[in-house]
Design brief:
With 695 residues, this protein is mainly α. Helix content is 59%, strand content 3%. The chain has 27 helices and five strands. The chain has a five-stranded mixed β-sheet with strand order 2-1-3-5-4, with no helix packed on it. Helix 6 packs parallel to helix 25. The longest helix is centred in the N-terminal third of the chain and has 27 residues. The chain starts with a helix and ends with a strand. Pfam families: PMT_2. It is an enzyme of class 2 (transferase). Its EC number is 2.4.-.-. One of its GO terms (molecular function) is glycosyltransferase activity.
Length: 695
């Protein structure tokens, strides 16, 4: 009967696409984004419900339950929230017409644009095919997932619930749980294939490109400009790196792209269903990760523009003779729909995700004081110091953006990269900004010469960022480019999000992944290069210098994108950097690549402990626990050193004890597993691990 579950999984995808086709306007992007939100929302609600009854690991319940919230969504948007105009069409009809549109579009491009788009599309196809193979044929091995993200999925499934239980790593219990439901659903319906834990992240990668395309199309009505914006988003190094990992920031970015798209679509269509879609998406995003609060100021600005902007302009600028009563009635009506949508979204998707439980247990929605002091605004201390250090962070992240990410994975290009940054360093030293010396509001201190692991695993935007996107943001803000208030709103939104990243948390060299959401606001501005109001636009016949400049950027960005994937030390598709291909690497070697000192210990553990054993764990917060579940994820692990609770008694059912020397003192008969304690230059050194046979 195992074959029935993949069939039901495919049926559910078809079901949400059918729902989206009945709810949306005649637009492929509209259908894809709405189906994505319907899929995620339905699975999240189902997961919350199954967790409450202790059945989150029972795929029999999952198989049919997900259809219920999806059907309710359909009823709401056809009978209640979206009773405005609907167009009649089929999904497959749209696929056919859009395929023909793309074919004709590319054929009619000028030669130099064919060359440019050919490079971008070629880079995208090469990297996308490679990444799909990496997703389905290599095991997850991202650092935070080995300690928290994936590790907690296994604990939740063993317990049958996502309730707080006291994990070793603090984020197991305190991080929001909505994305866990999607990963568990994908894993169970695939037949318990662990690589499917990564599928939602790669889906989010595709969706974020569609979202940016949709936003760009709402801004310009220019297909060429919109395709360019989507390709830029897909080929940003930080976006590409997360497309094959189990880090959660790319999923948040996909929700944000959908939300901004729904708001801009509402401005165009004035169909209230898009206010409700925006409200539900807002709740899903806030329930996904607390860093979504960085987007609250920019989203407030975008909402004012997209939902109320036309009425405010008509009343106070153009002075159309609208009656006072009619004006406020329309404003109040739109506000009512928006507030109801936001309320429903927050109640359904945000409140059950774990923030309230954190307040109960720790007195704060994020988690315990240790976590707050480590990576939140509390670390800055006084308001005066926050302003001073936050301002430094603005400069630090700005400098981090000026990097040839992707190219710098090659030593020779890193030398060129450092030469490019030398003038910036000289200016900063003359201004005495002390970006490297001041470290009290940093996690990993800022440096002009970052470790290879940092810029390889967590790059920023690469050449597209500092050569095209950021200059356009500046030109819009200073008024040099004036092509409508929408572009100015997005430029300001970018600044607000960038400032929020800088002032609300300490500087961290790993923060390139946070810039995925920042890019959602900024990348649509690249459409200005094709705007019909510009004499210097790329589709014009003049301005050869601008075309040459853009062509060079496109070439470098395309090569960079390929190098981002093919020289990704975490998951190499080919042998490189002195390492074998990820396809040819042993499971434990690949999962412990970032901490090679513990690799021998984990190999010995795997040799000595049966795949179905029950193991008590006395490890510390930063230890890799996920590899200990075994190659088929069939071992049972029991935490006995929960975060900040101290060592608990060893449970009777445990057959083995895996422990760190600093947690439990070894005794005669314990087996030292062989951590290489002599290794140096480690980001974080591993513990000295031991194994004790209990039965």
């Amino acid at each position: 009967m195992n074959f029935i579950y993949p069939i039901l999984f495919a049926s559910f995808i078809g079901f949400v696409l059918r729902i989206a086709s009945r709810v949306c306007m005649k637009s492929l992007v509209d259908i894809v984004l709405t189906a994505y939100i319907t899929f995620c929302g339905s699975v999240i609600l189902t997961g919350f419900a199954l967790s409450e009854i202790g059945k989150i690991d029972d795929r029999r319940f999952w198989a049919f339950s997900v259809f219920v919230p999806a059907f309710i969504f359909y009823v709401q948007f056809t009978k209640l929230f979206g009773r405005d105009q609907r167009e009649r069409f089929t999904f497959f009809e749209l696929i056919g017409s859009r395929t023909q549109l793309v074919w004709n579009w590319f054929g009619n491009l000028p030669l130099w644009l064919k060359w440019s788009f050919g490079l971008l599309l070629g880079a995208f196809v090469i990297t996308e095919i490679t990444n799909l193979f990496l997703i389905f044929y290599t095991v997850p091995n991202e650092w935070d997932s080995m300690t928290g993200h994936l590790n907690r999925l296994m604990y939740y499934m063993r317990h049958g619930s996502m309730a707080h239980f006291g994990g070793t790593n603090w984020n197991i219990d305190t991080y929001p749980r909505s994305v866990c439901t999607i990963q568990i659903y994908n894993y169970l319906m695939s037949g318990r294939i662990e690589n499917w834990f990564k599928v939602i992240h790669h889906t989010a990668y595709i969706i974020i490109g569609f979202g940016v395309f949709g936003i760009a199309e709402r801004l310009t009505k220019n297909f060429t400009a919109s395709v360019f914006a989507a390709l830029v988003m897909w080929l940003l190094p930080d976006v590409m790196m997360q497309s094959i990992s189990t880090e959660t920031d790319i999923v948040l970015g996909s929700y944000l792209a959908c939300l901004v798209y729904f708001l801009f679509t509402y401005r165009e269509k004035h169909w209230r269903r898009y206010l409700y879609l925006a409200g539900l998406t807002f709740g899903i995003a806030l329930g996904h990760k607390i860093t979504f609060v960085f987007s609250l100021p920019p989203l407030f600005l975008i909402i004012i523009y997209t939902v109320f902007g036309e009425d405010l302009r008509a009343k106070f600028v153009d002075k159309f003779g609208d009656s006072y009563q009619h004006f406020w009635s329309r404003i109040f009506g739109r506000l009512t729909h928006l507030v109801v949508g936001l309320t429903v979204g927050i109640v359904l998707f945000t409140l059950p995700t774990g923030y309230l439980r954190n307040i109960q247990l720790f007195g704060h929605p994020i988690g315990p004081p240790t976590a707050l002091k480590h990576q939140s605004v509390e670390r800055a201390g006084t308001l005066k110091n926050l302003i001073k250090q936050g301002s430094r962070n603005v400069v630090r992240y700005s400098i981090d953006m000026v990097n040839l990410d992707g190219l710098r994975n090659v030593e020779q290009f890193e030398t060129v990269n450092q030469l490019i940054r030398k003038p910036i360093e000289k200016v900063e030293k003359k201004l005495h900004l002390r970006l490297e010396e001041e470290t009290d509001f940093t996690i990993n201190p800022f440096s002009y010469k970052v470790r290879f692991e940092f810029f390889n695993a967590n790059p920023h935007w690469g050449i597209f960022g500092f050569a095209i996107v950021l200059p356009l943001v500046v030109l819009v803000l200073i008024g040099f480019i004036r092509r409508g208030i929408a572009f100015y709103v997005l430029a300001v939104a970018f600044c607000l999000h960038f400032a929020a990243l800088s002032f609300t948390a300490p500087y961290d060299a790993w923060k390139g992944r946070y810039m995925i959401s920042t890019a959602v606001y900024a990348v649509p501005l690249v459409t200005l290069l094709f705007h019909e109001g510009n004499k210097w636009r790329l589709q014009g016949r003049s301005f050869v210098l601008l075309k040459f400049y853009t062509a060079i950027v496109v070439l470098v960005a395309s090569v960079s994108a390929i190098l981002v994937v093919y020289l990704n030390e975490r998951c190499l598709p080919i042998a490189a950097l002195g390492r074998p291909s990820a396809f040819d690497t042993d499971r434990i070697d690949l999962q412990t690549w970032a901490r090679p000192d513990i690799t021998p210990a984990y190999h010995k553990f795997d040799e000595l402990v049966p795949q179905d054993a029950t193991v008590a764990l006395a490890t510390i917060n930063d230890d890799f626990e996920y590899p200990l579940w075994g190659k088929n994820l069939t071992r049972t692990l029991i935490v006995i050193n929960p975060f900040e609770k101290g060592v608990q008694p060893i449970p009777k059912e445990a057959q083995y004890l895996f422990f760190a020397k600093k947690v439990i003192k070894p005794q005669p008969g314990d087996i030292r597993l062989g951590t290489d304690t002599t290794m140096t230059n480690m980001i974080t050194k591993g513990e000295d691990y031991y194994l004790r046979k209990l039965k």
